[in-house]
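Inputs:
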Amino acid sequence: MAQALVDHYGGDTAFKTGYALHDVLLKDTLRPVDSFSSLEGVRVGSIPSVEGAGWKVNDSRSLYAVKGWGGPYFLVDDSGRLCVKPSADAAPVDVYKLCRDVRQQGVQFPMLLRFPEIVRGRLHELQGCFNHAIALAGYQGVFSGVFPVKCNHDCGLIEGILEAGRPCNFGLEVGSKAELLMAMSKIGTSPGALLICNGYKDAAFMRLAVHCWELGIKAVIVLEQTQELDVLLEEAAKAGVQPVIGMRAKLATRHGGHWGTTSGENAKFGLSPSDMVAVMRKLTAAGMADCLQLLHFHIGSQITNLSVVTEAASEAAYLYAELAHMGAAMRYLDCGGGLGIDYDGTASESHSSLPFSIQDYASGIVCAVQSVCTEKAIPVPTVVTESGRALVSHHAVLIFDVISRQGQVCQPPAAEPEEAAQAEHHVVKAARKEELSPRLTVQGQALLQASRAATRAVQPTAASMREAYLLSLSLKEQALKAFKGGCISLEERASVDLECEAMLQRVRDIAAASDAALPDDVQLLCMPPVATYHINLSVFRSAPDMWAIQQLFPIMPIHRLDEQPTVSAILADLTCDSDGRIDRFISAAGSKASASTLKLHELKPGEPYLLGMFLTGAYQEVMGSAHNMLGTLNVVTVRSSNCSNSSVFGDTPEAEISPRLRGPGYAVDTVEHGESACEVLTRANHVRQDMVEGVRATASAAASQGRMEWGAAKSMLKAYERLLDSYTYLSL
Ligand SMILES: *Cc1c(COP(=O)(O)O)cnc(C)c1O
């Protein structure tokens, strides 16, 4: 009979579609972690292994490739906790302990941890690499970096960057009016710093920017298109000032990554060679050739090919030299952003990685520019870069909890011994309809008998295991068909599904116990089902690039790293959006391809399971959206408390900061609460008072009509208001 079923349904197709069906089968209801008791007696389809035996913290280090993407800031300590080491002289901070401490103070998950010292460290590293390259090459100029604020607009972060960069005149880059308004208010304290004004500009933008020099702010107005020149000249004439002007060049050098279209001749931004000549002529005619001092280019983000960087720098240097020869008072060559980071830790040319160091990047640019300037016999420019991603990605860590796990496999109902013995006989007997209860159907019972018999029949041979697998698929499919035809009850269908899963589990158990080498396809069948872990997070709010451009971020548990993670999982977020799931992960150290599952631990009753998503400090907060009205996160700013340079905020004396919380090696400087439901709703024009009044009216109607106690109505209204003012995420 078993073979007949396989034949009927075509083993091959069933096999090919196996994984989809498999997924359907494993869908279970959402199960809160709190009610762990309901999981007792549940059999979980993990690889039967000697749990934890022989598993070392080192295995976790390599499984999650921590050194590759995280060094030197993130590491796993010997007790199996993920630690942050914000600076070279800081002691590692146990992130799990930190989060638990913060949670105890009433700050809920998910939370974003900020480590300003890491930004400071990255900035000094970038500056140091350029200084080193300049010294090594005997380059007769300096490096003057700017931070593109669009990467992360956080006020404290930008102030921290200016403060850390003051000794080396580190400045800011803006691309819109709002960004300019913000940057102008901050940069005054860094008199030597550049304020690079990119982006499309109207008259108001120009007016503000041309006045910057009078304020002592070194603003450079970069022309993105020729039309902007007239507006600029007009505003400069009105103000009676000589602005410092830059030009954005459309380079021919292209890069192949996601942002490749930012570069090349069809790029959205920048001036073509003929535009540049036209602008130069116009400026000369106006007697303002010496206002042109900067050449800018930006060929994209996360550039993974060093020769693209040096080629672009070289091409730009030739343009720079030509402009100098045409009479411009050239001083700056702005190489834009594009310096990447190694998200997957593979140090490869994959879009999520980076095969070269910051030092290689700096040396490549410095040498390329120097060689062109020597050839063209012009003084070398001040090298400017607008590195955003490379500067701020590492400083922010997203911590979120797992709510529940889907894909727990339930025990199928046990077959009666007598029933088992007479399975075939029963099928015949069941054919007499009147003997069945209304919920039991002939077809349903027949399917159930068949699946039980098949489970018992699995033998430790490849052929038998393969057959059982195909059979389980076909039986499930038959049960579905019968159910859709109204022939079997829901309970029967569920029983068949569970029995089929038991059959697969038996195959896995037999395979695990067998010493013989199993053929690949059987091994594939024996893969444990992929579990879905529900996470207290919105991908759209907190890691939008995962969804928008398939960006990979390292994700891993931040504790229990001394235990073997036995479950292969994908993550599903809180939104009602099928795109709100994470099913691509970085792979273990030594492997290059991305992985389709993440190894996680079994959930433990009564213990939170915390995951971290790393390298999220650039673009994610800014691009995140309020899908399903999930708002911004609680943000906790942390510094190390036992390093010699403990005051991250420089000028602020240690005593003036009153840390809310101190723990081993750390002090929490600030906690900013994420948006409340009401704040998110207000952005969509909902008015708090109207909402409360609406519910109040409904409740008093219910009470006066006797459908609800007055007391209950009142406390319901109170709870409603309280929720309006609370965090939008699950409170576990
Ligand atoms: C986005 C952008 C940057 C920052 O790029 P990163 O790759 O993050 O360093 C710099 N300059 C310009 C003009 C940009 O548009």
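Confidence is low (pLDDT under 50) at residues 1-51, 417-434, 643-658. Flag for discussion at group meeting.
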